[in-house]
Specification:
The complex is a heterodimer of chains A (about 140) and B (about 150).
Chain A lengths: L16 H15 L6 E6 L16 E6 L3 E4 L2 E3 L4 H11 L5 E5 L5 H13 L10 E2 L3 H7 L2
Parallel strand pairs in A: 2-5, 5-6
Antiparallel strand pairs in A: 2-3, 3-4
Chain B lengths: L17 H15 L13 E2 L3 E2 L5 E5 L5 E4 L6 E3 L2 H14 L4 E6 L5 H13 L4 E5 L1 E2 L10
Parallel strand pairs in B: 1-8, 3-6, 6-7
Antiparallel strand pairs in B: 3-4, 4-5
Classes of the chains: A alpha/beta (about 140), B alpha/beta (about 150).
Amino acid sequence: MKMTKRTVSDEIPTSSMADITFLLIIFFMVTNTFAATRGLDFAVPKEERNTQTIEKQESVLLSVHPGGRFEADGRAIRLDEILDYLKPKLERDPLKPVIIRPDPESSYGDMVRVFDVLRQGKDKGVEVRNISIPTQREIEQFWY
Amino acid sequence: MLLKTRQSRGAIIPTASMADIVFLLIIFFVLTFNVDVDKAQVALPKTNLRFEVPKKSAVISVTEAGQIRVSSGEETSTTVSGYEDVLAFAAEQVARDADKAFILKADSRVPYQTIDRILDSLKQARASVIYLLSDQETVEGAGQGG
């Protein structure tokens, strides 16, 4: 009688490996988002009672109006002139508060542009250490 | 006459390195994997300075139409009906983690009064840090305005 010996392969089958890994890649590619995860930060005072009272003549008021118009202490100003305007004032008093007061009808983007200019001051030799963006409620409560 | 035997070439594409390449790609995607908790389409304001926001920060998004959505940073954002809901949401997040960072993802064309109310809600909820999400300012757009 003829006996045939059946051999069992000792190799791990890897033919489906590429299929599995490609499925994983497709999953990650579809679900992955390179979301915008950068922005400008600002710290909020923790306790309102610790916030200091600012006298009008001690601060610089930057107003943002609809249509992308800006004013510094009531005078029209361009974005690229703001730091030049602040430089002599901050040299005299480095802690001089700069208040950004956007008009309710102005766009959020214009407020962010002003805030960005002030934050860039540090790299341009005009460090604005004290930036304040009061809300309407705070203005009604504390504005002089 | 002895004829030369014809040598046949195998039509096989070498796939031995395929697994290495694919695993490298998988490792890349695993490392950069980032599920967007808020899919609201907004035209972000452009800034020159941009800082990385902390992961798992709470997100408040505002579309141009004024629709407000909130997310704790761990689940998909949901629409809220008013500023009172934003305040309640922010207070809940701060109660859980006093140092919770908030990301404001707002369309640059939104009237400031909407943002003002949201910032006021965050201040009332004692939020410590707020990030104003932005896109990178291009050279042409820098320094204009006024």
